[in-house]
Each structure stands twice: as C-alpha cells, then as structure tokens.
Automatic annotation (TrEMBL):
Keyword DNA repair listed: no
Gene3D superfamilies cross-referenced by the UniProt entry: ABC transporter involved in vitamin B12 uptake, BtuC
Protein name, as recorded: ABC 3 transport family protein
Stretches that traverse the bilayer: 7-27, 47-72, 84-101, 121-138, 164-195, 207-229, 236-254
Species in which this protein is naturally found: Candidatus Wolfebacteria bacterium GW2011_GWB1_41_12
GO biological process entries: response to zinc ion; transmembrane transport
Length: 257
C-alpha cells in the first residue's frame, strides 16, 4: 500500500471520529477544549521522543492523566471544565516547549501523517472505529445531558460517569489527531467540520452526519493535495474545512432570506 493511500485511509477514520466528537463539543459549548488538550499532550510527546518510545503512547498517558485530573478537580472545586483545561493547557504548553527536542518541535506542532508506520496506521484506524461506535452508542445520553443534567439524572443517566467518558474520548481523539494536523491545529480538526454542519443541519442525526461528511472530505482532499504539492497536510485540511464553513454560512444566510 502506498504512503498516499495509507495516509488518506487513516485521515478519513481519524477525521470522522474527531468531527463526530466535535458535534457534541459545540453542543456542550466546549469548542476550544480540543485546542487546549492538544497542547496538554506536548510534554508526553516530548518525553516519548527523549526516551525513544511511541509518541502516541506518551500523548495518551499525559492526556488521560490530565482529563482525569480535570474531571476530579471540577467535582471538588467550583471551577468549570474550561477554566481547568486552560490551567492544564498553559502549564503543559510551557513544559512541552522546554523539553521537546528542537528538531522534532515543528512536526509535533504541525503533524506529519505520512510518518506513520503501517502498524501505527492500523492502530489509529481501529481506535477511531471503536471511538465512533462508542460515541454513536451514547449519543442520546450525551445529547440529553447537554440539554438538562437534571432531566438526564432523573431517568437514570449517571452524569459524572458520562462526563468522564466524554473527556476520555476527547483525550484519545486528540492523541490520534495530533499526528495528522499537529498540536497547533488539533482543535480545528474537531470543531470546524462540526461548525459547518451546524449551519446546515435540521436535526441531531443530520448534524452528526454532515459533520462527519465534511470532516472526511476535507481530510482526504487535504492529504491528497498536500502529497501532490509537498505541503504539510494539517494546514491544508484546515483551509479546506474553513472554505466549507464559509460556504455553509452563505447557504444558511441564503435559506433565511
């Protein structure tokens, strides 16, 4: 399998999972959390590079530790998730910038999906599929929790456990996406396709479907264009997603006339 085909396949699955998650991030008004969490992963990636083990594993360890800490502190304090993520973001960004090897810093910030081995690509695809299935399985609970936590609790939904699961999903998708678009642009991978879908969707299901479609098209075309013209795929993906967002805004305004 060529590097191009392998990269496109991986990007499709990662973008689908990220876009699906992004729909709920917008509903939960946590649009910037993905951006912040991607920087939380930096120290883990840096330590992996220094001690020569898989950067994905380093990112996952730091992200899971961070979201568990955020979840616990939110419960024990009066601070919101966004505030706590901001604190972890600032500290992790500073630490990551200090310890990340200089020659690896650009790839960490902008991503390089072509550098994935076949084994890493397969693992990324399998994790993405598992996350997509899990999100779809709990989508109604997530939606109800975002509408009213009291109503969700009244019908037996365990809000605290659900929120932890949501943050864990966020952590895993961020860890996957960093290899694609890098730490600088990870938040856009999650949010922009979902924001475009929100402009056009008429229901929750159409919102989720359009978000995934926009994400997949932008990812596949971004990787292809980047390969042809020797660009980094992350920024190209974001630019294509931004074009979709502008078009969706125009269509929305036209439909309101």
């Amino acid at each position: 399998m060529s590097i191009l085909i392998q990269s496109i396949i991986v990007s499709i699955f990662v973008a689908a999972a990220a876009s699906l998650l992004g729909s709920f991030a917008i509903l939960k008004r946590m649009a910037l959390v993905g951006d912040a969490l991607s920087h939380v992963a930096l120290p883990g990636i840096a330590l992996a590079l220094i001690f020569n083990f898989n950067p994905f594993l380093g990112a996952v360890i730091f992200l899971i530790a961070a979201v568990t800490g955020i979840w616990f502190l939110e419960y024990k304090s009066d601070l919101s998730v966004e505030t706590l993520v901001g604190v972890f973001f600032a500290a992790s960004l500073a630490l990551g910038a200090v310890i990340t090897p200089e020659h690896e810093l650009l790839e960490t910030l902008l991503g390089n999906i072509a550098s994935l081995t076949r084994q890493e690509s397969l693992i990324s695809i399998l994790i993405s599929i598992a996350l997509i299935v899990f999100i779809l399985k709990i989508r109604k609970k997530l939606a109800l929790n975002m509408i009213s936590e009291e109503l969700a609790q009244s019908i037996g939904i365990k809000n605290r456990r659900l929120e932890l699961a949501y943050l864990m999903i966020f952590a895993l998708i961020v860890a996957l996406g960093i290899r694609f678009v890098g730490a600088l642009l990870m938040g856009s991978l999650v949010i922009i396709p979902a924001a475009s879908a929100k402009n056009l969707a008429k229901s929750l299901n159409s919102f989720l479907s359009l978000s995934v479609i926009f994400g997949i098209i932008a990812a596949a075309s971004g990787v292809y264009i980047a390969y042809i013209y020797n660009f980094s795929p992350g920024p190209i993906f974001i630019l294509i997603s931004a074009i979709f967002f502008i078009i969706s805004l125009i269509i929305r305004k036209f439909n309101q006339i």
